[in-house]
Amino acid sequence: MKITNKLFNVFDRVSFTYSTKSTDADETKATYQENWNEWKKLIESVVGNFQQQKLVLDGTESWQNSGHLSNRFWSRLKFNNQLNSASCIALMIDRNRLRVYLEWHDKIADSSTNNLTAHNDWVNHLDEWIHHSNIPVERYSVWTSNQSIQDEYINLESYINNENIEKTIENELKNSRKAWVRVGVLYDKTEAVEWNNAEAVLSKCVEQLLWLYKNSVKDYIPTSDNSDTKLFLNENTTYSGISTEDNTITINDNEVSVLLNNIKVFIKQKGFMYPNHWIENFFLSLKAKPFVILAGVSGTGKTKLVKLFAEAVGATASNGQFSLVPVRPDWSDPSDLLGYKDLSGVFRPGKLTEVLVEASKPSNQHKPYFICLDEMNLARVEHYFSDLLSVLETQEWDNHRIVTTPLIHRDSLQNESDKQVYGNLHLPDNVYIVGTVNMDETTHPFSKKVLDRANTIEFNYIDLAQYPTVEGTPASEGAAVPPNSLLRSEYLQLVDVYHDYKQLTEETTELLVKINGILEQIHSHVGFRIRDAVCFYMIYNDRFALLSKEAAFDMQLLQKILPRIQGSNSSVKKALLQLMQVAQDRSLPITEYMEDASKLYLSPETLAVSKYPQSARKIAFMLRRLEEDGFTSYWLS
Question: What is the pTM for the complete model shown?
């Protein structure tokens, strides 16, 4: 469901006095009721995602009151056995913004089953909440019931890092027995109307606030043994259904962020730390195409990320769903991965083939299988991986499953038993291939054929000042193992999704057209394969409400476009400068920087405020290498 400008614009009035005798009374009433019903429909859709937690819609304030039109729509969510509590999760929309926040319903305060002191006590559990629910503190705001102007609201990150701010609010609560403190997410109108799936975004916010809300109603008791407000899916969790067409376990879009949070906590509690949004980016990359490259210096956790991510979704070495395959420098053809016929004509399967056979069994098709090609570029990837690269492009739908042309043809096998096991073996849709690479003098570069088919995630910017957590129980204990549908691609061609995400697809394509015009100067422009892959990444991100639109495109510019660029001439430098204009979303004196671009790469403050900061940082690095070494490449570390 989308939120349109119309819903915000209904509050764009000079006067909110409503008279049934006015000439436009009927039109005003119809407009307000239409938008009010649209708002209620959206909130009801959000509440429908929390039936297991017994969360219900306590009410939506009327669109008018005693001859006055409302200047906002306001809805309250509560546990179904806590309707008499004044604590609630509120959703509100006015002419400029939409917000989701923890609220105190003051009108029923006198009869509330919990008191204001207990409600305000959430401020003493912030650290626990932030850790437990993986809260993006830079996105949340804190404000008291006495604050009416958004500019007065305090960023949550500033609040938890500034004792003076905390003391100021603490004193305000002590001096006013009817004051309470709110916390929540505020979205500007311009941001909200861009969402293609508003209920997913709002549901994620509600989900993040559930822990605080639960602890605000101290006497909350789950109404059934299977209902809990834990954000981690537990052994009682059920997914959104089973498709009657192909018996595939499906996952509701709103469950994705919960599962990813579970994965992140699992990895963290195993003692490994990755930067913000890396897990979301890795997930989106796998979802867009089941082939990802992790590049960077040795010892940065590339292989470990694959192993831990796989373990978090139930794929381990012990159950055969995770396989680490070290690549040897002497691999020169696909037989090293797929297998070969010996002198007697018997087929000797390679490691990859063995995994494909297991993954293809009907009893295993709902399980994800991971193959990690370690040190992938010790040999020339195009030599031993060419068959896989070609087969990836033959994916098509067949009876609700994704199939490819055969990797091993039945007619090429002599032994009848080999034909039964390996004949016409294809790449199933529950197999994910991740290659780890180090770029140094002992390795081989990648061709555009490889880069076109993968997202390249770089591990070169490492913060060593991180320490493992020792808190809590590993998230895997008692956690439900998500089905393969969490990771499986849902779109193979742009036509599969264009109608549903027309605006986002066209916006993304317009950006790529602009970038392609730059790349054409150095013969590095992209085709439809990359356009579709980038659009799929952006659409999945929008569906699951994981990253901002800018952050998602930043990742794609960094991972799908920049790896193609290398060279030593002025055309490459000009192209990088023009790409920097895109990344910073501002004009640059190209002619001036052609002589000396050091102002760009020696100004981290400027890069940090870029529209696409990750890409801007990488472009600055590539410009520096070009000016200092006379040659540049994405792969230089």
Answer: 0.66
Average model confidence (pLDDT) across the chain:
85
Q: Are residues 373 and 484 in the same domain?
A: yes
Helix (H, G, I), strand (E, B) or coil at 453: coil
- For 105, 136, 183, 434, 506, the CA distances from 124, given in Å and listed in that order, are 20, 18, 13, 43, 46
Euclidean distance between CA atoms 90 and 87, whole angstroms: 9
What CATH number does the domain containing 351 carry? Answer: 3.40.50.300
35 with 156, same domain?
A: yes
Residues 546 and 552: their CA atoms lie apart, in Å, by 9
Establish if 243 belongs to a structural domain: no
Nearest partner of 179 among 113, 120, 124, 108, judged by Cα:
120
Whose tokens are 């605006």? That residue is 503
The residue segments making up the domain with residue 590 are: 509-526+536-633
| pLDDT score at 601 | 78
Q: Note whether 288 and 358 are same-domain residues.
A: yes
Average pLDDT over residues 555-569: 94
Q: How many Cα atoms occupy the beta-carbon half-sphere of 576 within 13 Å?
A: 33
pLDDT of the residue at 567 = 92
Number of domains in the chain: 3
d(C-alpha 412, C-alpha 526), whole Å = 36
Return the residue matching tokens 């604050």: 147
90-99, 174-183, 279-288: lowest mean pLDDT where?
174-183
Q: How far apart are CA 454 and CA 293, in angstroms?
A: 6
Q: Cα–Cα distance between 417 and 322 in angstroms, integer?
A: 26
pLDDT 10s digits, 497-522: 998 899 999 999 999 999 999 999 99
Q: List pLDDT tens digits, range 378-436.
A: 999 988 998 998 998 899 888 788 989 999 988 888 888 888 888 889 999 999 999 99
Structure tokens of 309? 């991510």
Same domain flag for 187 and 74: yes
Q: Would you give the DSSP letter of residue 150?
A: G
Q: Are residues 49 and 95 in the same domain?
A: yes
Q: 323 in a domain, yes or no?
A: yes
User: Residue 24 falls within a domain, yes or no?
Assistant: yes
Residue 168 and residue 257 in one domain: no
Query: Could you read off the pLDDT of 164-192 as tens digits, one per residue?
Result: 888 888 777 777 667 899 999 999 999 99
